[in-house]
Write a structure and sequence with these properties.
By secondary structure, the protein is of the alpha/beta class. It has helices at about 1-10, 15-35, 40-65, 70-90, 95-120, 120-140, 145, 155-160, 170-190, 190-200, 205-210, 215-240, 250-265, 270-285, 295-305, 310-325, 335-340, 395-400, 425-430, 445-455, 465-470, 470-475, 485-500, 515-530, 545-550, 565-570, 575-580, and strands spanning about 150-155, 240-245, 355-365, 365-380, 380-385, 410-415, 415, 430-435, 505, 535-540, 550-555, 560-565. Helix 4 (about 70-90) runs parallel beside helix 6 and helix 13 packs across helix 14. The structure holds adenosine-5'-diphosphate and magnesium ion (MG).
């Protein structure tokens, strides 16, 4: 019982509600025609429900993983066709056929994942679209094995026999599959992998600095899509009683893709609404026009996108959210955090070097952004990195966090040579960072934005989350897109703190903060150093703030360190003053 309640809690929020509405609609759409004795509508809704379950996993692939696949119809088709070939033509029966069909679907689905590791966006779309175009032609061309254009009849007696009530086993299986797909999607999004998948899609860069390997998550998304699509393909065979190349033309792949888009990218209920509209309008209501199906999809999609730019469900949810958001978004108060008694104080760090950079060079074409930089950051210190715009500060942080490999030079983190490490491996070494433009994920709640930091933490109950947990409720219901700019910076800093990374690289974290917020921010920096034992490399344009908090300052100019020392020394250095004349209070 308690476990069941925990599950429901997991599904709380818009995702869970939409999944439940979807399940009710699926059940009603199949049960009502059966009870009413309409074989025509029962058949139509069984097919559309199978399409919905494919569209649900396509939604996960497109909206959560950011992968454009126009080839899911071929995955669906290969599962169905294998059942026909193995089951009927080779007389192995439905069960063996289904197992082979599943294997074929997973194989093809993962074949799509391979290009996705290298290419993205339109290129990936093109590769998968080619597969969808070629697939039905292959079915015809290989007619010795596939029975070609004549198709293959398949009878599965146990599944389609009607009981006294008119229900069939296949109807039950379709309801279970579609409901399971919706529930799975809602539950998956609340998991660590589900959050990380969305982060990797929204910003692969930021994802890697949070320890995420985007390639692995893409692979996972394609696997989930292949399994869901494959099972739907298997069940399609007994519903139709027949497979033919005609059923798996490229239209089908386009149909799945558009179902997601017009229903509302990223909305749980979107694929269902999209598939219903796209299937029922041209096929059922305008059956005489079925030759113009592709044109029908195009017109319906165009009209809907004009009225609902975020898809039907997406646009409605957006309106609802704006309506509710008039009550202001709860602010993230740093005070909150700073006044919290920290129980597990880290021991003061010994004076070893956390980051050592030697001879770092990096050029962009003719321009030497880093011309041989040496930098050593002592563990447990706040180290300021200042310099005029374009002097190479961000480039140096990118190199240290593994986002932009050096042309030459060495980077050591806690003594480990990390020069050639990919960003997610550097994150695993304990390097966390924020960006000059905060990477906040507007499709997630404020709380989820914090959670993806905690997801990167080696321990499961980081101190920050315990402290902030009292605001979990309100932050779970608010999106960060309504937060003022300064708060987005604070949110990103909170996220990297939540990741428990002992080394923090902060790129102009105080830009855009008010004087009062800067004072709080300076307190936060000292708090992180003194009470949590963090090492901080902070890039700042504004010398005043750095003077207040840094133990040591390096000054970068045109890709070279021109001065280094304790704040007082830097403050009085005439060369530095000359560099910053006019910008000191900017
Ligand atoms: P800062 O952060 O100190 O303002 P950057 O490190 O962003 O400076 O940039 C240093 C120099 O390198 C600038 O002249 C910038 O135009 C150039 N630069 C940075 N990134 C790239 C890039 N990806 N491609 C080409 N030039 C770049
Ligand atoms: Mg910069």
């Amino acid at each position: 019982m308690a476990r069941a309640l925990a599950r429901i809690n997991l599904l709380r929020g818009a995702d869970g509600a939409q999944a439940l509405i979807g399940i009710v609609l699926v059940i009603a759409s199949i049960v009502i025609p059966i009870l009413a004795g309409s074989a025509y509508w029962t058949h139509n809704f069984l097919i559309v429900s199978l399409f919905v379950s494919v569209a649900v996993v396509q939604n996960l692939l497109l909206s959560d993983a950011g992968q454009v696949s126009f080839g899911q119809g071929a995955v669906f088709g290969i599962a169905a066709y294998t059942v026909g070939m193995v089951g009927t033509l080779w007389s192995q029966g439905f069960v063996i056929g289904a197992l082979c069909g599943m294997a074929a679907a997973i194989l093809l689905g993962l074949l799509f994942a391979l290009p996705a590791l290298r290419v993205q966006g339109y290129y990936l779309g093109f590769v998968t679209l080619s597969a969808a175009v070629v697939f039905p032609q292959m079915l015809v061309a290989l007619n010795d094995y596939t029975n070609g254009i004549n198709g293959i009849p398949v009878t599965v007696p146990g599944l389609s026999e009607q009981g006294q009530t008119g229900f069939t086993l296949i109807a039950l299986l379709v309801i279970v599959l579609t409901s399971a797909a919706l529930l799975f999607h809602a539950a998956f999004r609340a998991t660590r992998a589900g959050r990380r998948m969305r982060v990797a899609a929204a910003s692969p860069e930021a994802a890697m600095t949070l320890g995420i390997d985007p390639g692995r998550l893409r692979f996972l998304a394609f696997s989930i899509a292949a399994i869901g699509t494959g099972i739907a393909g298997l069940l399609y065979v007994p519903v139709l009683g027949f497979v033919s190349p005609y059923a798996f033309r490229v239209d089908l792949s386009i149909f799945f893709f558009f179902s997601v888009v017009i229903g509302g990218n990223g909305q749980l209920l979107g694929p269902l609404i999209g598939a219903w509209i796209l299937y029922l309008v041209p096929n059922a209501l305008l059956a005489g026009w079925s030759d113009y199906r592709l044109v029908g999809y195009g017109i319906v999609a165009l009209l809907i996108m004009l009225v609902f730019p975020d898809g039907v469900v997406g646009s409605m949810m957006d309106r609802l959210r704006r309506f509710r958001a008039r009550e202001s978004v709860p602010l993230i108060a740093m005070d909150h955090l700073l006044n919290d008694p920290v129980t597990d104080l880290s021991p003061p760090a010994s004076a070893t070097s956390a980051i050592v950079v030697t001879g770092a060079r990096k050029s962009f074409g003719q321009l030497a952004a880093l011309g041989g930089v040496d930098l050593s950051v002592t563990a447990g210190h706040i180290h300021g990195l200042v310099g005029p715009n374009g002097s190479g500060k961000t480039t140096l942080l990118n190199a240290i966090s593994g986002l932009a490999p050096l042309d030459s030079g060495v980077i050591r983190i806690d003594g480990t040579d990390a020069t050639r490490f990919a960003a997610h491996r550097l994150a695993a070494l304990g390097v966390g960072r924020t960006f000059q433009t905060p990477r906040i994920f507007d499709s997630m709640s404020i709380w989820e934005n914090l959670m993806i930091g905690a997801d990167a933490a080696p321990t499961h109950d980081p101190w920050l989350l315990r402290t902030l947990a009292r605001d979990e409720e309100s932050w779970s219901e608010s999106r960060p897109d309504l937060l003022p700019h300064a708060q987005r910076r604070v949110l990103e800093i909170m996220r990297v703190i939540a990741s428990d990374a002992p080394i923090l690289l902060l790129d102009e974290p105080a830009a855009g903060l008010s004087p009062e917020e800067r004072r709080d921010f300076a307190r936060l920096m000292r708090f992180l150093r003194d009470r949590l034992g963090r090492t901080i490399l902070i890039v700042e344009h504004d010398l005043d703030l750095v003077w207040r908090v840094a133990d040591r300052i390096s000054v970068l100019d045109a890709g070279l360190i021109v001065a280094e020392g304790p704040p007082d020394e830097i403050h009085d250095n005439p060369r530095v003053r000359a560099l910053f004349t006019g910008t000191i209070n900017a």
